[in-house]
Specification:
Blueprint: H1 18-28, H2 49-67, E1 82-86, H3 87-100, E2 104-109, H4 116-125, E3 128-131, H5 134-142, E4 150-152, H6 159-168, E5 172-175, H7 178-187, E6 192-196, H8 219-228, E7 232-237, H9 248-266, E8 273-275, H10 285-300, E9 308-311, H11 315-318, E10 322-334, E11 345-350, H12 359-363, E12 370-375, E13 378-379, E14 395-400, E15 409-416, E16 425-428, E17 451-454, H13 458-463
Parallel strand pairs: 1-17, 2-3, 2-9, 3-4, 4-5, 5-6, 6-7, 7-8, 8-9, 11-14
Antiparallel strand pairs: 1-10, 10-11, 10-16, 12-13, 12-16, 14-15
Helix pairs in contact: 1-2, 3-4, 9-10
Bound molecules: pyridoxal-5'-phosphate.
């Protein structure tokens, strides 16, 4: 068996050991600026006190776990992949949100990652929840969240789910077509409706407007039908596409939403809420995106308009919280039979792949970057030697998942100065969004992996009642 770590794992109750608390306290005593609002927020240099502490806690959690595994003797599955999640990062991201979009209340998109501890942290911070299905809604309600903090942000809903939310009092939901309006009129006429409009999502990683959203030449007819059916249209929503990169998409969408607000007034609707959707990344692009959005909102929906502003961020909150460790289960030397004069290269096989937590490669167009966690007895987390080498003569690797499918390919080519062997460990950062939620058990590999939780922010620990 793997030796238990001192930190809570996925199956333990939410509990942070004294060790972690003290660590946080000592390192941050006298630090009044928990969050530094700057583009350096996500640098890797450890020059921000709490980010340095985060690396320290994450590294320690990794070290304890991997040192407890000897793959020459361990039981089946002891060397399975696992995550380390820093709940302090959720807290930092929330403060960053509040600084940049102070008027916009986030409703976390559960689909992105439904880890109960992440959701608990968000609930404690006061966010709402964007749900796409009955199960997600049930999960949130079971956390004791009031139905008014849930939006059923799915424009094309399952009949029985609409009956379910009507019974549970989850009233806020989306529509973008006449059939859906008639469905809602039949099943939940008291629902509070948002008209989801089409956006230009061509700059995003995952385009959503191919599937959802009413074009501006259809909104007049939809509002007329809603009025005729006696329905309650409360607001407008949009989504600029997941992983958006063009801030101008937000400006155009806000302008279009403003136009629909005016159009709705001509049908006798007094719209109260604008939902600006998701699409925000957690990297330095956030400040640019949020800046453009904030200015657009101030111009078109100023505070004195009385319009409530909400959003549905997913990736923004989850991505950078989770770091994944994988074990190298096998290695193949390329061109073994030839002279190694031109440098050896290897195929390495790890115990997670595109059918598992790297599903983000297929479904979310991501390119996770391998770093070396442990090579032999050397623990390299967050050191220069952990990262890929820029030297063209360094040892070349391709990284493959564990299934029998040739598609199960994580990295085409990466070079390290270190020779990696079976039993060594790799890690991948920013693995919290659209990863474990779409992992399968293809080829019999588990998709239920341990998560070791740390917390690098005393503010977050205080909120969780752990200080
Ligand atoms: C309706 C809706 N809201 C919110 C999100 C979350 O988007 P993101 O993770 O890009 O913030 C999605 C993602 O697919 C979505 O479909």
């Amino acid at each position: 068996m793997v030796m238990p770590t001192v930190l809570a794992d996925r199956f333990a109750p939410l509990d942070y050991p004294e060790y972690a608390n003290n660590h946080v306290f000592v390192k941050t005593a006298g630090n009044h600026g928990l969050y530094n609002h700057s583009h350096e927020h996500h640098n890797n240099h450890g020059d921000h006190q709490n980010l340095g502490l985060a690396k320290q806690l994450i590294g320690e959690a990794f070290r304890q776990r991997v040192e407890s595994v000897d793959n020459e003797f361990c039981n089946p599955g002891d060397e399975d992949p696992f995550f380390v999640a820093d709940l302090g990062e959720v807290y930092r991201q929330h403060l960053r949100w509040k600084l940049n979009l102070p008027r916009v209340k986030p409703f976390y998109a559960v689909k992105c990652n439904d880890d109960p501890k992440l959701m608990h942290m968000l609930a404690t911070l006061g966010t709402g929840f964007d749900c796409a299905s009955k199960n997600e809604i049930e999960l949130v309600l079971k956390m004791g969240i009031d139905p008014s903090r849930i939006i059923y942000a799915q424009p094309c809903k399952t009949n029985s789910y609409v009956r379910y939310v009507a019974e549970k009092g989850v009233r806020q939901m989306m529509f973008d077509n006449p059939d859906e309006l008639r469905k809602i009129a039949r099943l939940f006429p008291d629902a509070e409706l948002f008209l989801r409009i089409l956006t230009d999502d061509s700059s995003s990683l995952c385009r959503l407007s191919l599937k959802f959203g009413a074009s501006l030449d259809s909104t007049d007819g939809l509002l007329a039908l809603a009025r005729e059916l006696g329905l309650n249209v409360m607001g407008v929503s949009f989504h600029v596409g997941s992983g958006a990169s063009d801030p101008k998409a937000f400006l155009k969408a806000v302008q279009d939403a403003h136009w629909v607000f005016q159009q709705a007034a001509t049908h006798g609707f007094d719209l109260k809420t604008l939902d600006v959707g998701g699409g925000f990344c957690s990297d330095a692009s956030f400040e640019d995106m949020a800046g453009v959005l904030r200015n657009a909102l101030d111009d078109y929906f100023p505070a004195h308009s009385g319009v409530n502003l909400i959003a549905e961020p997913g990736r923004y909150y989850a991505s950078s919280v989770y770091t994944l460790a994988c074990n190298i289960i096998a290695r193949r030397i390329i061109g073994e039979e030839h002279s190694q004069a031109n440098g050896t290269s290897y195929m390495i096989y790890v115990n997670d792949g595109v059918y598992g937590n790297f599903s983000s490669i297929m479904f979310d167009h991501q390119h996770p970057v391998a770093k070396i966690l442990r090579a032999g007895k050397r623990f390299l987390f967050d050191t220069a030697a952990a990262a890929a080498s820029p030297d063209a003569n360094a040892i070349e690797y391709s990284v493959w998942g564990p299934t029998c499918d040739g598609l199960d390919h994580i990295t085409e080519s990466i070079r390290f100065d270190t020779t990696l062997n079976e039993g060594d460990w790799l890690y991948f950062e920013d693995m919290g969004a659209y990863t474990m939620c779409s992992a399968t058990t293809f080829n019999g590999f588990s998709n239920d992996h341990d998560v070791i939780y740390v917390c690098s922010e005393p503010g977050a620990l205080a909120l969780l009642g752990r200080l």
